Amino acid sequence: MAKLILQPGKERSVLRHHPWLFAGAVAHLSGRARSGDTVDIVADDGRPLGRAAFSPQSQIRARLWTFDPEETIDDAFFKRRVAGAVERRRALPDLQEQKGLRLIHAESDGLPGVIADQYGDTVVLQLTSAGAEKWRHAIVGALQKATGCARMFERSDSEVRRLEGLELVTGWLLGEAPQTPLVIDEHGVCLGIDIAGGHKTGFYLDQRDNRLLLRTLAAGKSVLNCFCYTGGFSLQALAGGAAEVCSIDSSGPALELNAQLPGARAQWLEADVFQALRDFRKEGRQFDIVVLDPPKFAPSAAHAERAARAYKDINMFGFRVLKPGGLLMTYSCSGGVGLELFQKIVADAALDAGREARIVRRLAGSADHPVALSFPEGEYLKGLLLQSG
Ligand code: SAH
After folding, report:
1. CA 152 to centroid of ligand 1, rounded, Å
2. Which of 73, 146, 212, 219 has the smallest count of CB within 10 Å of its CB?
3. Distance from the CA of 248 to the center of ligand 1, in angstroms?
4. Whose CA is nearest to atom 23 of ligand 1?
């Protein structure tokens, strides 16, 4: 097996079990390895550190599969890792009943480049790294064995694949398209899921707990759900007895998926949220609860500055359409914007909007999106529940 020899000192992050090795950490490759091949990771002093998938085209040059230099990377390894991820979810009581569930959360489940989400009897798989691509058969087989799923669909169409020199791929891996639209039950609410054409693997499972929280707050309230996608927050608010829910997204197909369900208390607007909130302000329209769940403005720290401006604007607009005493539920899903920075941006937005507000709860992703302690980058979703003065 080829060896990837590290620069002096660059073994430190590996010893702390961080799974990524950037190009600058690598001294040289000893032996031959192609994209996705397994290589031994070796410190400058010759000490073996673990085994990784080689990504010659990517700035992340290697992703560690294991920190045990003796562990063999083979079909049995993927069977163990996949079964372990599925078992951990089965061991958490609030995940046991979920019909929509993230089964594999990439690095945080010890499987860099592998995302698997389950919607009823259908699993949607996304492979984003050269190493994951190389082991696709083992991963598919392991997932089928661990879940007994009837169908598996591949959504390996994330642009990050291009950084690894991989084509974008979608299609059925197991079974075929069902005759009826896919619907899951989320806390008693039926949600249509478009696994082939929707965002990510079809749905934002990471916000499940937060949608339930909104439901508990919504009775009798007017709710504005910005960046609503297929209306998950909206349907939970309605289930919780909201008086009216206005939902805004720029994607027509996303809005249409569940729009027929709720009836008269729901308004769906296909619009740019920045513009729509300016218009509401001019009209003097305000809400008891405002949800802001924008897309990833900063995919990495390099985009943080421009993203900060967008987060500040949207939160300022959000405060302005919030009734005095109302609740603002605001999120960032940008890996490049940490909680501390996000909180500062929201504080600036409140100041500019001329509003006082208090944090009543800090919010994060659901338990099926765990964050490995050795991989803080896995904590991309952060949110604040604020009560305005
Ligand atoms: N809250 C949703 C997920 C939101 S994802 C849920 O719980 O399922 C972010 C959404 O923002 C996407 O649906 C995308 O179509 C939408 N979007 C991105 N930019 C937008 C803009 N400027 N105005 C309105 N919607 C936008």
Report:
1. 26
2. 219
3. 8
4. 272
